[in-house]
Automatic annotation (TrEMBL):
The gene is cydB. The lineage of its organism: Bacteria, Bacillati, Actinomycetota, Actinomycetes, Micrococcales. This is Cytochrome d ubiquinol oxidase subunit II. Belongs to the cytochrome ubiquinol oxidase subunit 2 family. Keywords: Cell membrane, Electron transport, Heme, Iron, Membrane, Metal-binding, Transmembrane, Transmembrane helix, Transport. The chain crosses the membrane at residues 6-32, 74-95, 115-137, 157-183, 195-216, 222-242, 249-269, 297-320. It comes from the Bacteria. It holds the Pfam family Cyt_bd_oxida_II. The keyword Ligase does not apply. Its main location: membrane. It comes from Cryobacterium ruanii. It is found in: Cell membrane. GO terms for molecular function: electron transfer activity; metal ion binding; oxidoreductase activity, acting on diphenols and related substances as donors, oxygen as acceptor. The keyword Glycoprotein does not apply. One of its GO terms (biological process) is aerobic electron transport chain.
Length: 334
């Protein structure tokens, strides 16, 4: 396989890993006002992701660094054209991370309430804007002959891109609610399952609309297959959650998100940044890639490093696999 094509799909894999793993982190954060009846409930929710949220977030760093090294033209165009949106995502991630570390530093309820709000906003903003960004990449943006973005920020807020943002927001929200039901016990587990069911109905409608739009407007045969599988996995996850099969529901939600990302990348290929104003200005896997030598070195590095990363992350999840509940929080307080 050509190394440029290989690295296109490696980048896709990294973003799948990021959206699946940090996606349920975002969902847990967004669920605070719905599932956190009191401070103990909110501590339970935060503790479900406490050991893993920062590890999950490193996937976007690896994805961004790999994008920079493998496709520098793509990286430059995307990060300059989507500068404001990506800055907002970065600020939101910083705010969320700071809140996790500082909310417990003082006992006052107002202090905790302030940081809880920052967690909610810091989870919702990236969940929305990542979908907007990737939908715009698939749709295409105006580029000049030098592959520079020549549109405005408001050009990115088109109906298709906004629908993509709402889709990722809802997918991550349901993913997080299912994760809470998988990781907790008692009343909060039951309420999380019910929340996932209620939100799941809306998510199915919105996600199906986005996938159909993507397939008919920008899709290929491969992307249509991935879109159909994503829709089937989402419906199956919804039904599994209704039956109380939490592990299956969570796995199927992860599959839904992964297949949705594959749908977008398959719709994009062989472009990496289509030009909506003139196809001749589009960035492709060929004209956006680094040299063959660079991609070769990166391939050997990935071959050695990626299995180690996956094994370490799998081990981390195994260590922190047990459920938690209010009783664990109360014991910790005393």
């Amino acid at each position: 396989m050509d190394l440029t094509i290989l690295w296109f799909w490696i980048i896709a894999f990294m973003f799948i890993g990021y959206f699946v793993l940090d996606g349920f982190d975002f969902g847990v954060g967004m669920s605070l006002p719905f599932l956190g009846k009191d401070d103990t409930d909110r501590r339970v929710l935060i503790n479900t992701i406490g050991p893993v949220w920062d590890l999950n977030e490193t996937w976007v760093i690896v994805a961004g660094a790999s994008l920079f090294a493998a496709f520098p033209e793509w990286y430059a165009t995307m990060f300059s054209g989507f500068y404001l949106a990506l800055v907002l995502i970065l600020v939101a991630l910083i705010v969320r991370g700071v809140s996790f570390e500082y909310r417990h530093q003082r006992p006052e309820s107002e202090w905790k309430k302030w940081f809880d709000g920052m967690i909610i906003v810091g989870s919702a903003v990236p969940a929305l804007l990542w979908g907007v960004a990737f939908a715009n990449i698939v749709r295409g943006v105006p580029l000049n002959a030098n592959h520079d973005y020549i549109g405005s920020f408001f050009d990115l807020l088109n109906p298709y891109a906004l629908l993509g943002g709402v889709t990722t927001l809802l997918l991550f929200f349901v993913h997080g609610a299912v994760f809470v039901s998988l990781k907790t016990e008692g009343d909060i587990r039951v309420r999380a399952s019910k929340l996932a069911a209620r939100a799941g109905i809306v998510t199915i409608v919105v996600a199906a609309t986005f996938l159909v739009w993507t397939t008919f407007a920008y899709g290929t045969v491969a992307s249509a297959i991935f879109a159909a599988l994503a829709a089937a996995a989402l419906i199956a996850s919804f039904l599994a959650n209704l039956r109380g099969a939490e592990r299956l529901a969570f796995g199927l939600m992860a599959g839904t998100i992964g297949l949705t990302v594959l749908t977008l990348f398959a719709s994009l290929f062989p472009d990496v940044m289509p030009a909506s104003n003139d196809p001749a200005n589009s960035l492709t896997v060929a004209n956006a890639a680094s040299s063959a030598y660079t991609l070769g070195v990166m391939s050997w590095t990935a071959l050695i490093g990626m299995p180690v990363i996956l094994l370490y992350q799998g081990w981390t999840y195994w260590v922190f696999r047990k459920r938690i509940g209010r009783a664990h929080i109360e014991v910790a307080v005393h």
